[in-house]
Design goal:
Layout lengths: L3 E13 L9 E2 L7 H12 L7 E8 L2 E17 L7 E3 L2 E24 L3 H11 L15 E14 L4 E2 L5 E5 L3 H5 L11 E13 L8 E14 L2 E2 L4 E5 L4 E2 L3
Helix pairs in contact: 1-2
Length: 251
């Protein structure tokens, strides 16, 4: 298999929430950003106005978790303002205001590998991380990311001559190829299996209405992965490895 060029990016964030879409009262967070979140950041920094195909590898660590309060607004389309029910009157429409809780990761360090499908996108993305035109954010808009490193690396499939793992305290999203992998004690020669997630990567717009009354929804392409930490890759197994010697798990 030929050696491929990829963009290696290391980021740091102080407080961040990578929101799970099914959490409401407590805005829970994933341990690492979903692929769609990373791809969205890449598109925003590179100035892409349409979807550009790419594969992503996501690894990282965080120090701890905390809960934070935030102001939450609730409203229903067309509901009139009622003084005893709503806190805000918006031109006769009622809006409720209260507090809710968000789960935040503290002191997050991320290692990302980006593999664009089109060769012409490579330099555009690398330049966008090397010289960002605005502050990068990952997660919520206010979750600012500090770029520690952005560089080109070679990625190749190598047979491990000895056991290898992630950097200390790191975790990674490792793709699940089939249902049989779940039942095994090993996955791709890794010593353990972690928490399984079904994470969004990209989407297409579909019309579930009619031509005259369109109802456009996003149909997400989701990937089955394990979130794994403190594992070891077994010797004599094949892995994607970058030119700095780090394991890579493209999705």
């Amino acid at each position: 298999m030929r050696i491929m060029k990829a963009i290696r990016v290391k980021l740091w964030q102080d407080f961040v929430n990578y929101k799970k879409p099914t959490s409401f009262q407590l805005k829970e967070t994933y341990p690492l950003p979903p692929f769609s979140t990373v791809i969205g950041m890449v598109h925003a920094l590179a100035g892409f106005e349409s979807y550009h195909e790419m594969d992503i590898s996501v690894q990282g660590k965080y120090f701890s978790k905390v809960n934070d309060l935030y102001t939450r607004y609730e409203f229903k389309s067309g509901m009139s303002f009622e003084k005893g029910r709503h806190q805000i009157d918006v031109n006769g429409l009622g809006v409720g205001r209260g507090i809710a809780t968000a789960e935040l990761l503290v002191d997050v360090e991320l290692l990302l590998h980006i593999l664009p499908e089109k060769e012409e996108d490579f330099e555009v993305i690398l330049d966008a991380f090397s010289r960002p035109k605005e502050y990068p954010s990952l997660g919520r808009r206010e979750d600012i990311a500090t770029i520690i490193e952005a560089k080109e690396v070679d990625v190749d499939v190598k047979t491990l001559s000895k056991q290898a793992g992630l950097p200390e305290n790191y975790g990674a999203y490792v793709p699940v190829e089939s249902e049989t992998d779940v039942k095994r004690t090993e996955l791709y020669g890794l010593e353990q299996v972690g928490t399984r997630y079904r994470l969004p990567k990209n989407y297409v717009l579909e019309n579930f209405g009619t031509a005259k009354k369109p109802k456009i929804f996003r149909r997400w392409n989701k990937k089955d992965v394990f979130y794994m930490s403190e594992f070891r890759g077994m010797r004599k197994r094949d892995f994607w490895v970058d030119s700095d010697g780090d394991l890579v798990f493209f999705v």
